[in-house]
């Protein structure tokens, strides 16, 4: 087995990933966002081309099962644009699904996740799960247990949606304690939405990856705290734990076809600002070196 990032076009050596948007969405639909679906392949292609022109090399889509992830379209976009794309399996919070959708998969989640990661025509490269606001409900615990089983079978990283940035330590306690997932295989998302430096430092000390996934049009109110949070992590010696993403969740938030800021802002404006404020070494770690480690796995051989 060789450590590689599992993209929609196959496994790629981690060092070839390049500048990475570690958390974004090219396709997404949810009953919580009526009329704001990300469902246009042509608009996604324009966004990716703008991203690539600014030096972007890879985008990790955290859209899980049942939310319009469109893996075949992701594969076509990767071929057309030359950008590495990573798809997700997993499940979001229960509110994003109908009761019938959840009932169909509830008792076979782990097997479904493993199939998405190992035998699907277009394979996923990470498992997306979600916590609740300041805690974990029964759905989150059930889904995380299935994700842990799938991780132990495949080695895939587990990405955690933290509701409004909360519940990071609860998620780590369950996944890395009770469920025995190595902390370095856990990616905690949306931490910028709850800028509690003490929690950030504890999560980094535990060995998890910390994803700050703004700027996002829907969550811009936390953007101004981003540099304070990153500076605290850097000063504590945790530069190697930081990931950055744009988390574009609506069509209107695209740069190429909407009001932005979108993928180009992340690798253009924000990356330059990080290099200026925290140094080029920090910017390279956050955009290149850390994603290469976070998303790589020793994938089992094909069945």
Keywords:
metal-binding; 12 strands; Metal_Hydrolase; three-stranded antiparallel beta sheet
- The total domain count is 1
Shape: globular
- Going across the biggest sheet, name each strand in turn: 6-7-8-9-10-11
Helix content: 25-40%
Strand/helix succession: EEEHEHEEHHEHEHEHEHEHHE
Strand content: 15-25%
Question: Under CATH, the topology is which?
Answer: TIM Barrel
End-to-end C-alpha gap: 13 Å
Q: What integer is the average pLDDT?
A: 94
- Kindly state the number of beta strands: 12
Helical segment count: 10
Report on this model:
It is a single chain. With 303 residues, this protein is an alpha/beta fold. It has one domain: Alpha-Beta Barrel (TIM Barrel), CATH 3.20.20.140. It has helices spanning 41-53, 71-81, 99-105, 109-118, 138-154, 168-178, 197-206, 226-235, 262-278, 280-294, and strands at 3-7, 10-13, 19-24, 56-61, 84-86, 88-90, 126-130, 158-161, 186-189, 209-212, 242-244, 296-298. The strands form three sheets. A six-stranded parallel beta sheet has the order 6-7-8-9-10-11. A three-stranded antiparallel beta sheet has the order 2-1-12. It is globular, with a radius of gyration of 17 Å. Belongs to the metallo-dependent hydrolases superfamily. Phosphotriesterase family. The modification N6-carboxylysine is found at residue 128. Keywords: Hydrolase, Metal-binding. This is Phosphotriesterase.
């Amino acid at each position: 087995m060789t450590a590689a990032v599992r993209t929609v076009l196959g496994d790629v050596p981690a060092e070839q990933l390049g500048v990475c948007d570690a958390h974004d969405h090219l396709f997404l639909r949810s009953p919580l966002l009526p009329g704001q679906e990300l469902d246009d392949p042509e608009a996604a292609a324009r966004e990716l081309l703008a991203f690539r022109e600014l030096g972007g090399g890879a985008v990790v889509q955290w859209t899980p099962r049942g939310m319009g992830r469109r893996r075949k379209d992701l594969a076509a976009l990767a071929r057309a644009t030359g950008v590495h794309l990573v798809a997700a399996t997993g499940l979001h919070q229960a509110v994003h699904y109908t009761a019938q959708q959840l009932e169909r998969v509830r008792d076979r989640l782990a097997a479904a996740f493993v199939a998405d990661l190992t035998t699907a025509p277009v394979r996923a490269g990470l498992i997306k799960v979600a916590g609740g606001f300041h805690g974990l409900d029964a759905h989150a615990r059930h889904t995380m247990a299935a994700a842990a089983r799938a991780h132990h079978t495949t080695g895939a990283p587990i990405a955690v949606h933290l509701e409004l940035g909360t519940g990071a330590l609860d998620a780590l306690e369950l996944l890395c304690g009770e469920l025995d997932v190595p902390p370095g295989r856990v990616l905690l998302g949306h931490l910028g939405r709850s800028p509690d430096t003490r929690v950030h430092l504890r999560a980094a000390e535990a060995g998890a990856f910390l994803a700050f996934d703004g700027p996002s049009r829907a969550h811009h109110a936390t953007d101004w705290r981003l540099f304070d949070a990153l500076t605290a992590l850097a000063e504590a010696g945790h530069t190697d734990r930081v990931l950055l993403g744009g988390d574009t969740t609506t069509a209107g938030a695209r740069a190429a076809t909407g009001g932005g800021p979108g993928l180009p802002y992340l690798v253009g404006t924000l990356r330059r600002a990080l290099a200026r404020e925290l140094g080029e070494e920090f910017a390279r770690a956050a955009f290149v070196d850390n994603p290469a480690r976070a998303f790589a796995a020793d994938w089992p051989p094909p069945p």
